[in-house]
Amino acid sequence: MSPPTPSSTPHSQTAQPAHILVVDDEPDLRTLYELTLLREGYKVDAAGSVAEALQHLAAERFDAVITDMRLPDGLGMEILQRIQNDQRSERCVVMTAYGSAENAVEALKAGAFDYLTKPVDLKQFRAVVASAVQQHAAPVKVVRTVASVDAGAAKSAVVAASGLAALARLVGDSEPMRIVKSRIAKVARGMAPVLVRGESGTGKELVARAVHACSQRSDGPFVAVNCGAIPENLLEAEFFGARKGSYTGSSQDRDGYFQAARGGTLFLDEIGDLPIAMQSKLLRAIQERNVRPIGSTQEDAVDVRIVSATHKDLHAEVLASRFRQDLFYRLNVIEIALPALRERREDLPALCTALLERIAHEAGMPVPTLSADVLRRLALHPLNGNVRELENLLHRAVALNDGDELHLDLMDSDSGLASLAAMTGAAAGSVVMDATRTTGLIGFHDLHDAPIASTGATPALHDAVKAPPPAVPSDLQTYLDQQEREILVRALHESGFNRTAAAARLGLSLRQIRYRIARLGIATPNGDDGHGVAIDE
User: Fold this and answer.
1) Which residues does 508 contact at the CB level (< 8 Å), separation at least 6?
2) Region of residue 527 (phi > 0: left; psi between -120 and 50: alpha; otherwise: beta)
3) Which of 155, 170, 258, 381, CA to CA, is 20 to 30 A from 497?
């Protein structure tokens, strides 16, 4: 049914009402949705099937389309796909049955603005619709004046400016970074959860902030949470809040991260570090959009967009039963893969300039310059710590600088280690090389008093190096992955990249070594194990 368009106020003085198409085959529910939207001041058309909805779309434009997933003559996905294929501007909200998480994820990946779970909560229904039509005409009840037009235009300009500023903080114009920025601008328009994947130090939080700044939620809060830094016994209270007296020391009601991010974006950094028990509670909060504070019998409705980040391979974590598969698919609707610095070295000059400007501003000093020679040496440096390592190098250079031109301490540890190997044996040298790459605590200058074995036999490392033990790694899984990768690469090199021989040497089966090679991203020169067996077989 289509309600008569209100005409009590002239168009010249009244905002055009947002026009919404509701598609549901159940008459009672369809009427309920229509009445709810009419009370909000929207203009509403309704359809009971895919064919009827497509007829409405062919006849006119809408600001939003709200459709059930299952209809008598097809799926709501067909309506969404038609909107996408025709490059129409309507934002589509899909309603799915309770427990049909796969349908919701599929719809978001196909371009849906948002989803609702049946039975639909009307308060949530109104909030999602308001969000979907936010940048279109206001409801008919609102009188448009010159001031309101100017305010709306000013707000749009502010949002656009904040988005451009956030993208500008992602320094670099290389092809990988252009792809990242383009994807951010595209995914920011909807409400689909985003997973930012990248190595430590690549700037995953900057990407999350850019997604928020480019979205229509940019004037809402951005709440960043490091999932690996919260004690396990406090996780539920930190995420969902707590009521006064609910636990020892709880002297007043307090909101959790979900409540604090209401109307904005909740950034879950290092989501892979979240314990399994908390993962199930997080999944329910994301699906139901309700959280229950500790000590409360009532649930709080929350309206947040979830952006998460990890340096881990979550797919491998799922296979190892360390991460819930259903939560993985719920979070990984849209993935943004952030390149490592070694994959975009052409961005180094711009990155150095931006970092030095910030460092100099914080120190209240003129911006120093890097010579072309230093930049060339920097381009050859491994920079395994990515932008974070680069920033640390520049910080140290600025602190030790005594002139206008910076000089970086990029002493090539490999040459010192080669000398060590000549003195104490290749085995000791290779072990120290691992320690140097991992901790940075042992260098050639520490080894001037290393005893040399008189018998010619290779001395043990603890006899050769009088140095403090390596520091405890801050990320055990990354440290172990790095060690495993180096061992596998060495075994493959020494066996001429014959994976069967390398597996036998390491006490692994061929299937096990194939899995590890794929998981750790180790490339082989010929793509086989010397017996014509391809990696993906």
Assistant:
1) 516
2) left
3) 381
Q: Quick one: angle between helices 476-494 and 499-506, nearest 10?
A: 120
Decide if pLDDT at 433 tops 50: no
Rounded to whole angstroms, the Cα distance separating 140 from 138 reads: 6
443 by Cβ neighbours in 10 Å (0-12 / 13-18 / 19+) ranks as middle
**Residue 115, both tokens:** 């989803």
Q: Using the Cα atoms of residue 245, residue 248, residue 252 and residue 258 in order, give the sign of their dihedral.
A: negative
Nearest to 257 by CA among 212, 215, 308, 222: 222
Closest C-alpha to 121, from 92, 90, 98, 91? 98
Do both 206 and 299 map to the same domain?
yes
User: Which of 358, 374, 406 is the last residue before a domain boundary?
Assistant: 406
Statement to judge: residues 156 and 68 lie in one domain: no
pLDDT score for 399 = 81
Q: Are 194 and 379 in contact (CB under 8 A)?
A: no
Choose one of 423, 446, 464: the last residue of a domain: 464
Containing structural domain, residue 151: 147-337
Percentage, residues of the chain above pLDDT 90: 37
The answer to whether residue 2 is domain-embedded is no
Q: Residue 5: inside a domain, yes or no?
A: no
Name the token pair of 524. 């082989």
pLDDT at 445: 34
> Do 188 and 291 fall within a single domain?
yes
72 cis-preceded (ω within 30 degrees of 0): no
DSSP letters of 208-275?
HHHHHHHSTTTTS-EEEEETTSS-GGGHHHHHH-B-TTSSTT--S-B--HHHHTTTSEEEEETGGGS-
337 DSSP β-pair partners: 197
401 and 377 housed in the same domain: yes
> Which residue, among 194, 120, 521, has the nearest Cα to 340 in the 3D structure?
521
> Does residue 201 share a domain with residue 157?
yes
Task: For tokens 């490091």, name the residue.
Answer: 226
* Cα–Cα dist 378/345, whole Å: 9
Based on the domain organization, do 265 and 277 belong to the same domain? yes
Same domain, 478 and 458: no
Look at residue 7 and tell me if it is in a domain.
no
Q: How does the average pLDDT of the chain come out, rounded?
A: 78
Whole-number Å distance between alpha carbons of 467 and 187: 50
Tell me if 535 sits within 8 A of 518, measured CB to CB: yes
Q: Is the pTM of this model over 0.90?
A: no
How many angstroms separate the CA atoms of 339 and 186, rounded?
18
Give the amino acid at 85.
N
Domains in the chain, number: 5
Neighbours of 123 (CB within 10 A): 11
pLDDT at residue 404, as a whole number: 66
Extract the tokens encoding 38: 């009419």
Residue 371 DSSP class: -
Judgement on whether residues 191 and 279 belong to the same structural domain of the protein: yes
Could you tell me the CATH number of the domain that includes residue 494? 1.10.10.60
